[in-house]
Every structure is written in structure tokens, then in C-alpha cells.
Input
Amino acid sequence: MQITKNAVAAIEYELTDDAGEVIDSSKGSAPLSYLHGTGNLIPGLEAELEGKASGDAFKVRIAPEDAYGERHDEMIQDVPRTQFPDGAPLEPGMQFQAEGPGGAHIVTVVGVEGDNVKLDGNHPLAGVPLNFDVKVVEVREATSEELEHGHVHGAGGHEH
Output
């Protein structure tokens, strides 16, 4: 069976940046299972997986616009420390969920100076080309419940 819309695929992968640093990997854990064609993966990787079958292996470089997008300087803002709970420790690298015009999203603390906290609303991998080394482990039909919920259930997927 080939990976097509609404198929469940299980993949083993290693994700690196252009310097060869490992960003993420399925090594040492179960393969990643996902429902194809429902936006559960970055668009560039999902497009590369289309038509692949169990046993297929490939390497691909995904450009930022097909991954987490380009970085946008306007998404870096100074926020008064008073917007955070009194006494809350704030250090670069900490992440918080914030409400914006487009709904909830994650912001990262990139600096703390006096009464100002500099927050970055860009995804941490925005602007980064991503290099994947992928092996398709399994491809199967999705269950009606998986199709209804929009994600995989069971081993390697979501449990309710």
C-alpha cells in the first residue's frame, strides 16, 4: 500500500540542521505514526512521503517555507514584566502560551532586561532548512474513528 490521503503511515526519522546537528529523531523509540493528508506533519515532509510504501527510505531537505516558515522580526516584542506573575522566574529559553489575534501560540523568552521581557513568537525552527533521513516502516488504512478524529490511535499514535 502507498501513502495517500487518509492512510496511516509509520516512519522512522532523523532530523538535522544544515550543520548536521540532530534536532529530533525517532531512534530509541517507536516509529512516528500519523494520518496522511490532514496536516499532522510539516507540508514539505508530507509532500515527500506521498506515494511512498513500506520499506522506502530517502533523504530530503525541506526549505523553511515548506516547514515552519521564515522568521519574522515583527514577532519579537518587548513585554512589561508586570504581564507575568509576581516573582515568577523568567529566563531565556522559557516558553509560554500566549493569546494573539490568530489564537493561542507558543512564545519563547529570548531576553530579560530590567522591567522588560523580550518574547519571540516565531517557531523555534522558523527560518531553518530541515534535513530528514526517513524510512517508511508501515502503511495501512485508517480506521473510521481515526478519520473522524483526524489523528492516529493506538501504538505510535494518540490514545484516548
Summary: The chain has a mean pLDDT of 93.
